[in-house]
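Quick check before the chapter quiz. The format below is the same one you will see on the exam, so make sure you can read both the input and the output lines.
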Amino acid sequence: MTRPRTATVAALAAAAALAGCGSQTKTVTVASAPADTGVQTTTSTATGTTSAPVTTTSATTPTQTEASSTRTAPEPSFAEGQSHSSSEGASAAAALVGAHGFTARDTAEYHPGQTLRVLVGTRTAAGTQQQQAFFFLEGRYLGTDAKSPSGRISVVSQSDTEVAIAYGIYRQGDSACCPSGGSQVVHFALDDGRLTALDPIPPLSSRT
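Here is the expected output.
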């Protein structure tokens, strides 16, 4: 009776030993798999990190292109100082008109970009309005349209070297404000640097 019990205990001990060894082997095998996967991930990340400088280099290219574009886009030369010179030219011309006892009616009529320029001056004398056209050659004063002022004149057209002036034609009994005879247009142009009337100027009796 003693021997069978001893054999049974020995058999159970051997089975337990075998079972313990098996579980240890499984634990080692499962634990080693994540360790290998972790190494591969790190290696893959390291490889990606190595290629990162290439991406960074290509990313700086647009920035360099934009900087180069900004440097090669200067302001158009024809726009530089244009308004300033126009203002000075009109102001100087208006000052000259004032020196002759007239007031410039509209400085916008003075076109600095033209060779022949004009300003209409007005004044009141003996209770009557008088007007006269003052001509300039690139800023240099040339003279007036006529020796004596007119009652009503206006600039109807301009080009580089020609200006058209409309004269109000007065009839007997007309008031200074309202000429009833319509208007007569006279074209003034440059002729070898001198101002010339291309059409007959109405007589003073019709202009006042």
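If your answer matched, good. Residues 1-73 form one domain.
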